[in-house]
DNA sequence: ATTCCTGCCTTTTTT
DNA sequence: AGGCAGGAAT
């Protein structure tokens, strides 16, 4: 059944929902954004809800922009503009900018990113004289973040061990520093807003009543703090409308709690539930592949994803030799697509981790195929950009120590480490900001006169800049600052290619400030800085005529006609599944694979390499278990020429040695789901007459041209291998046999002859 | 004070 | 492989 607006029954039900809590389980490609935007339009147009009393929250700026534009299309720009649409972080920043003073967040607050956080923690470790080996900043911040996501402060966290006590101490000092700096980190944006809303101030009361309707996208990715925020914002009327898909929950590592969506109806007795199960996006084969991947997942809310679309073509699974071979395949897909007259914008290449993009990029560049990389090396994290922003932030908010320390000697002003160490120690002692210490003669009394003079000059420059830029547009201010402090001159004098690139980046930064001025009603420098902090490169619009490269995480919420998923190997995807020391979460990896598969509309290509460079050293890989989970009748296997050559070269023994059983030789690499049990006589392995001896595995479906392109370990003399007991060793010889052996030298053990299947590539 | 070198450690994934 | 922190050399 379809309504006049073209909605199916459950969609229409969700859209028509007016009051009370409701959870929508929205399968991939089931039209959830449509449901949210239509519902907002419905509330405004049919139920006379004031647009500014509606809040719609997303996780990414991109989703927010998309939602806003669609709402404006439905209800008109004038009303649409009034709706509060934004990410969790941007929404909170907006609230805090206005009402944050009640929770010690000044109007001019700055947002510390991960780098800033680390700088600050490192300083605290020094201050508290803690060993940064034993208490690495990264780990400390991980802990602090975790606590914040659970809304615990340094005083309320669980301190069972000595290390916990240390963490609490660092945490406490960290918060003090943030407060003194007038800064917040990403988690604080949520935490502070929650604090504000929990308060009894008039502002808090008003805010709790402000929103008649709260709508949330990607609800499965909320953490406890975010969930609490939503409950507070909707506490008055309970009009909380959440949309998500527990199968697509992929952010547990940053605190997302899948139970928020799975237990929604338990948390809100009387809440309604709607399931969107019809997929409009993908071919039948792709939907079936996706189901195959997600079905083994545990604890799912039962859903029946289906599609009325054509079955389409099978999923292409391609065995490649290594990452370069893989890039060649990606190129081939792109070329085919282009020759068929498709826009390159409709092609995406996915990978599990950003590091995989390099080889793909090189290949695309060599072939002059236009591409864009989403995420990865982030523009706003480049040193020169951070420097420029640090100047701006130090001018807007001089209490921000991290920024002042960053730029105090860039370009070099003769204010060195020793000098600054003393200043910082003094500032810590007196509990004043670094800036205050620098501008206070008494605080500098212990310094050499020459150093004091240079510091005084720096302070004067900064004070001058604050005055001069006060009335300037952000772009002009940035330009002025960079010129005045000699930053541009420094780069120009350098003259190197890198310096040229840095100048270009700074021009781009100024350009982005100019863009901002065109968009915002009140383009102040502070607001520009805020936007920069909350902006990720992921938010760029899709360029015409360009292939897109990105991680699967970045791909969530997007769709492409053609998707190439690279690196479909065990230990790559699922990531680190072979590392027993890590508490990897294969469940989450599975959901991530589901996300990847469901991005494709028409064509899905999976590649897996038998060998790959990781951290500089070569590593072998077997196909990902997720490939096996795709129903055999919707996948088609093949291998590249390079792969064919490689396997022939290594695996086919000379005729005289006869009957080398390949299937057995690779057994330990081949069956990720069965724990190491080698395929034995239980699996009859007599090859069909047409095939070459030993060229088939019997537990697989094969098609026309498929000479079984499994990933093969290619152990050769000189390779570094790893043994459970002997550790790492160098291969000296390989003995072909039905169960091949390897002679290798293990430091501390000498030469050992071991079965190949007990080795892994080091 | 600056620059260069070396050794370590990294890598999920993002606001 | 690459980036970054700490240390040595200039």
For the secondary structure, the number of strands is 24
What about the largest sheet?
Answer: 7 strands, parallel
Mean pLDDT: 84
CA-atom Rg in angstroms:
29 Å
- State the helicity in percent bands: 40-55%
- In terms of DSSP E residues, the strand content is 5-15%
Broad shape: globular
Quick structural overview:
With 762 residues, the protein is of the alpha/beta class. The chain has 31 helices and 24 strands.
Characterization of the model:
Helix 2 (32-47) crosses helix 3 (61-75), helix 5 (88-99) crosses helix 9 (186-198) and helix 15 packs across helix 16. The two termini are 58 Å apart. The longest helix is centred in the middle third of the chain and has 23 residues, at 497-519. It contains 31 helices and 24 strands. The chain is of the alpha/beta class and 762 residues long. The chain has a 7-stranded parallel sheet. It is globular. The chain binds a DNA duplex (15 and 10 nucleotides) through helix 5, helix 9 and helix 26.
Secondary structure elements and their pairing?
Layout: H1 9-16, E1 22-26, H2 32-47, E2 54-58, H3 61-75, H4 77-82, E3 84-87, H5 88-99, E4 110-112, H6 114-127, H7 137-149, H8 162-181, E5 183-185, H9 186-198, H10 202-210, E6 213-216, H11 224-233, E7 240-244, H12 259-262, H13 264-267, E8 272-276, E9 278-279, H14 284-294, E10 306-307, E11 315-320, H15 323-339, E12 347-351, H16 357-366, E13 371-373, H17 383-396, H18 401-407, H19 417-430, H20 434-438, H21 449-469, H22 474-484, H23 487-494, H24 497-519, H25 525-534, E14 547-551, H26 552-555, E15 560-565, H27 586-597, E16 600-609, E17 611-614, E18 617-620, H28 625-628, E19 635-639, H29 641-651, H30 662-665, H31 667-670, E20 720-723, E21 727-735, E22 741-746, E23 750-755, E24 759-761
Parallel strand pairs: 1-7, 1-8, 2-3, 2-6, 4-5, 6-7, 9-10, 11-16, 11-19, 12-14, 12-15, 13-14, 15-16
Antiparallel strand pairs: 17-18, 20-21, 20-24, 21-22, 22-23
Helix pairs in contact: 1-2, 2-3, 5-9, 6-7, 6-8, 7-8, 9-11, 14-27, 15-16, 17-18, 17-22, 21-22, 22-24, 23-24
The chain binds a DNA duplex (15 and 10 nucleotides) through helix 5, helix 9 and helix 26.
């Amino acid at each position: 059944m379809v309504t006049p607006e073209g909605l199916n029954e459950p969609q229409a039900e969700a859209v028509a929902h007016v009051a009370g809590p409701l959870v929508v389980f929205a399968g991939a490609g089931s039209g959830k954004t449509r449901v949210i935007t239509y519902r907002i339009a419905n509330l405004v147009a049919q139920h006379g809800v004031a647009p500014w009393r509606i809040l719609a929250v997303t996780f990414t700026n991109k989703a927010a922009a998309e939602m806003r534009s669609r709402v404006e299309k439905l209800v008109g720009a004038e009303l649409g503009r009034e709706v509060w649409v934004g990410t969790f972080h941007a929404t909170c920043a907006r609230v805090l900018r206005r009402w944050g003073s009640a929770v010690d967040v000044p109007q001019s607050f700055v947002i510390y990113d991960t780098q800033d956080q680390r700088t600050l923690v490192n300083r605290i470790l020094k201050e508290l004289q803690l060993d940064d080996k034993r208490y690495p900043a990264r780990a400390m911040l991980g802990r602090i973040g975790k606590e914040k996501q659970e809304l615990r402060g340094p005083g309320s966290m669980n301190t069972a061990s000595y290390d916990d006590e240390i963490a609490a101490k660092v945490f406490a000092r960290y918060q003090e520093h943030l407060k003194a700096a007038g800064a917040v980190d990403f988690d604080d944006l949520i935490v502070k807003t929650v604090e504000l809303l929990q308060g009894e101030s008039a502002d808090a009361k008003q805010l709790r009543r402000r929103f008649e309707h709260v709508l949330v996208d990607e609800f499965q990715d909320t953490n406890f703090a975010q969930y609490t925020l939503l409950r507070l914002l909707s506490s008055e009327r309970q009009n909380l409308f959440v949309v998500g898909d527990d199968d697509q929950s992929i952010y547990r590592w940053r605190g997302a709690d899948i139970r928020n969506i799975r237990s929604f109806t338990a948390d809100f007795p009387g809440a309604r539930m709607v399931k969107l199960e019809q997929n409009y996006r993908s071919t039948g084969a792709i939907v079936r592949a996706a189901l195959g991947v997600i079905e083994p997942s545990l604890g799912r809310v039962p859903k029946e994803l289906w599609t009325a679309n054509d079955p389409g073509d099978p999923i292409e699974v391609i065995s490649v030799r290594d990452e370069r071979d893989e890039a060649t395949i990606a190129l081939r897909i792109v070329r085919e697509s282009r020759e068929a007259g498709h826009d390159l914008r409709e092609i995406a290449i996915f990978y599990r981790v950003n590091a995989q993009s390099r080889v793909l990029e090189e290949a695309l560049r060599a072939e002059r195929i236009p591409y864009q990389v989403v995420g990865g090396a982030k523009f706003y994290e480049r040193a020169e950009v951070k420097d420029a922003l640090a100047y701006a932030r130090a001018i807007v908010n001089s209490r921000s120590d991290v920024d002042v320390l960053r730029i105090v000697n860039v370009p070099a002003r003769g204010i060195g480490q020793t000098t600054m160490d003393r200043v910082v120690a003094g500032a810590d002692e007196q509990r004043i900001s670094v800036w205050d210490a620098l501008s206070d003669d008494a605080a500098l009394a212990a310094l050499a006169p020459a150093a004091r003079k240079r510091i005084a000059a720096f302070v004067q420059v900064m004070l001058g800049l604050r005055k001069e830029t006060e009335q300037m547009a952000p772009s002009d201010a940035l330009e002025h600052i960079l010129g005045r402090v000699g930053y541009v001159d420094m780069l120009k004098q350098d003259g190197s290619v890198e310096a040229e690139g840095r100048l270009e980046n700074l021009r781009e930064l100024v350009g982005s400030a100019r863009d901002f001025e065109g968009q915002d009603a009140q383009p102040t420098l502070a607001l520009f800085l805020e936007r920069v902090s909350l902006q990720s490169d992921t938010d760029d619009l899709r360029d015409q005529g360009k292939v897109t490269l990105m991680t699967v995480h970045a791909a969530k919420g997007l769709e492409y006609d053609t998707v190439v998923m690279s690196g479909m190997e065990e230990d790559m995807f699922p990531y680190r599944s072979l590392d027993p020391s890590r508490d990897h979460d294969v469940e989450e990896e599975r959901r991530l694979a589901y996300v990847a598969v469901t991005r494709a509309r028409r064509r899905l290509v999976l590649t897996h390499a038998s060998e790959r460079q990781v951290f500089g050293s070569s590593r072998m890989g077997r196909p990902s278990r997720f490939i096996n989970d795709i129903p055999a009748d919707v996948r088609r296997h093949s291998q590249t020429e390079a792969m064919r050559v490689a396997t022939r070269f290594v695996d086919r023994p000379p005729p005289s040695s006869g009957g080398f059983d390949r299937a057995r030789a690779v057994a330990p690499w081949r069956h990720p789901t069965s724990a190491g049990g080698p395929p034995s006589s239980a699996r009859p392995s007599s090859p069909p007459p047409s095939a070459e001896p030993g060229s088939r595995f019997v537990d697989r479906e094969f098609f026309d041209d498929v000479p079984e392109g499994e990933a093969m370990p290619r152990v050769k003399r000189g390779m570094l291998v790893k043994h459970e007991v002997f550790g790492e060793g160098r291969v000296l010889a390989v003995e072909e046999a039905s169960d091949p052996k390897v002679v290798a030298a293990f430091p501390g053990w000498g030469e050992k002859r071991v079965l190949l299947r007990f080795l892994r590539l080091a």
